[in-house]
Amino acid sequence: MTQQSLLARYAEDIFWMARYMERADNLARLLEVNEVFARDRRGAHNWDAIIDLNADREAFTKRYGTAKPTSTAYFYMLDRENPSSIISAVRAARENARALRPLISTEMWTHLNIFYNELLEIPADATRVPNMARFCERIRNACHAHSGITEGTFYRDQGWYFYQLGMMIERADQTTRIVDVKYHTLLPSAAEVGSLLDLSQWNALLRSAAGYHAYRRVHPSGIEPSAVAEFLILNRRFPRSVRFCIGEVSAILSQLIFKFQLSRGGSVAAVVDRVHRRIEETDIEKIISDGMHEFLDTVQIDLSEITSAMNLAYFGHDTIDEESVA
Amino acid sequence: MKQQQHSGSVTSEGPDILPGYDPQGFYCEITSLAKDGSVADTALLERLRTLDGAELSARAEDASRELYNLGITFTVYSNSSMIDRILPFDVLPRVIHAKEWEHVEAGVEQRVETLNQFIRDIYHDKKCLKDGIIPADLVLGNKNFRKQMEGIDVPGGVYVHVCGTDLVRDGEGTFRVLEDNARTPSGVSYVVENRHMMQRAFPDLVDDIGIRSVEDYGPRLLQAMLDVAPPGVMDPQVALLSPGTYNSAYFEHIFLAREMGVPLVEGRDLVVDDDKVYMRTTEGLEQVHSIYRRIDDDFLDPRAFREDSLLGVPGIFEAYRKGNITLANAIGTGVADDKAVYAYMPRLIEYYLGEEALLPNVETHICREPDGLKYTLDNLENLVVKPVGESGGYGILIGPRATKEEIEEIRAKLIDDPANFISQPMIELSVCPTLIDGMVEPRHVDLRPFCVTGKSSWVLPGGLTRVALKKGSLVVNSSQGGGSKDTWVLTD
């Protein structure tokens, strides 16, 4: 019996389980940061940006009308009808985990099962503004516990690498989205250059990506828009920067291809190499002058092409290929 | 409930053994141990005597929560939403002596050997039909008879690789067979998980008592699957085929796949090419040789059986027919699950093995036979009437507890379609002390031992003890308020 082989469906489920948990984590941080730090001059929040960031304007307006903190928070936390809410992401992760129970550790499954069952019991008022930060912290802690349990208990075969791929691709995607939405709305108009509002918003952007303290270490002198963008996109050591994540994706994929001899990954590698080069061969000045949005948009398309290539190469979405019969 | 008393009771010593506990005249699985007086019994009874009901209840509640969190659950559907339920777990074990177990073990193996010969016979020479041991139409007209299986040889002549034989104990303490489950008997995961739960939550009960281990089930099943793989395959790939996460027994499928260390596949993971079966892996297609399937015959292959099945694998039957894949259990074993066929089992045991049945049947009246029908109609108030093809405890009429209307309703059905029914006397199922709201009360139990057959047969020590938690109830099925207990087979 070949112990090394992994069912295509398992590979796909584990890839998506990792993505959904990463997504829940990012969303919780984004909501929390928006609540705590992102106030404008009059102390009001701008919740519109979060809705735009997830491209959910139409779905939201249909259900709630104009964005208000409580409805936005509920929409993104506990609304089971909203496919991009935290609870929907956790439910999807748990459904994947349920199918993966023969493969993953009992600890991973049990933790996710308890986490999801707890979310079902949380009353709607946990999303009210005074309770929100605590709720978000709970979500983030659970997501971190998930990563920790996975790191500490998951057997290091192919499955582990597919898990890492999912996590890194989702993380890169989330970072491009945060920068894409915030960068333009935060770019100072002539009248506001250097104002306090400006700074607190850029701080919030860094915090949304869990990068505030790391940024401070690299740039003790202060916040500067292009430096923030460079940090989030191109920094080599910050674990949520786009460059870092893509570098990881490339390294993990090589492991699958060479260590596990999954030669079908060649087509995936071609896409990964392209986006890897795109990141390695540029700098922040060039990105800004060519257009930040255009750059990030291209990266997002690249990321979704990686996933499509994986569908065909590894997840069995292709039709039966007679020649691949061993 | 009306008290059932019977003569020849061996359990008059109730109150002395467990304070406040009265088996009410039924054969009790625990208090009857006292007559042996071996060291293990004494230690166990001493422990049970000093139990603090309230504390036990609190720990039992923790144990239930743990089962839920671990996802040791079955799924029920209510208003189109999925709800995970645990199988209620009773903390007071059911105990079986080494000697008694030896007898059960031999009886189960005898039954499985007979089933395998019988099923091979009905799909080959049909000798038992020609010799008039069992009515031909009962077998050939059975809805689980698969004509497609005629003339197909299966490796080792094994059809029933996993058998669950439901046993009950009557008022005299005699084990009797209630039914055979030769298709896909479930519940073995609870046997193992109940033991784990017992060891975690009640270490003080388990300490220093010699109990036979139940850990070996997975490796034994894997070995059986390797034993029956198509001949000549060097390194057979085994898989477990499940209908998927929505199946109510999905936890058990996970459990078994994990314990065997084989992939849990669904129909969509498998493809048939050139009459060989492959699974889709990240490396492409990889051949599978031996499948423990938890999908019914009907849904296995839309080309051979039900065309509307989306769960199965198109073409797998042809691969099976050509001997390129082994399926366990074999296709067409459902004939043996029929309650009318069951009635002929003692004669079949004698026919094939030349032996008397070690485990007697419950006395059964076959309503397809005029005498049986007449007796049944004349004694409906005293009999249990069962439809022959149902499982899960559905459609059963318990005469002594039925209303006049219910009796007349079944009378009409019997006259209309007698072949669909059998009847049996009401068995006074044995009881076992059970924790109910902090008090120890008697509740009726049955026993399902699991027998695994590859090159040889092996019976898991113990099996699943199901307990009817409702006072006075005789129905142990989980779908109808049943729970389970850890089952201890004592070492010598």
From TrEMBL, chain A:
InterPro entries, sorted: ATP-dep_Glu-Cys_Ligase-2 (IPR051680), DUF403 (IPR007296)
- One Pfam family name is Alpha-E
Chain ranges of the DUF403 domain: 6-315
Report the domain of life of the source organism.
Bacteria
Supply the name of the protein: Alpha-E domain-containing protein
Origin species, per record, is Pacificispira spongiicola
UniProtKB/TrEMBL annotation, chain B:
Q: What sequence ranges are listed for the domain Circularly permuted ATP-grasp type?
A: 93-468
Renumbered to this chain, the signal peptide range is none
| Stored SUPFAM superfamilies | Glutathione synthetase ATP-binding domain-like
Q: Which domain of life is it from?
A: Bacteria
Sorted alphabetically, which Gene3D superfamilies does this protein's record hold?
A: 3.30.1490.270, 3.40.50.11290
PANTHER family listed in its UniProt record? BLR5612 PROTEIN, SLL1039 PROTEIN
Protein's recorded name = Circularly permuted type 2 ATP-grasp protein
Q: Which organism is it from?
A: Pacificispira spongiicola
Q: What is the lineage of its organism?
A: Bacteria, Pseudomonadati, Pseudomonadota, Alphaproteobacteria, Rhodospirillales
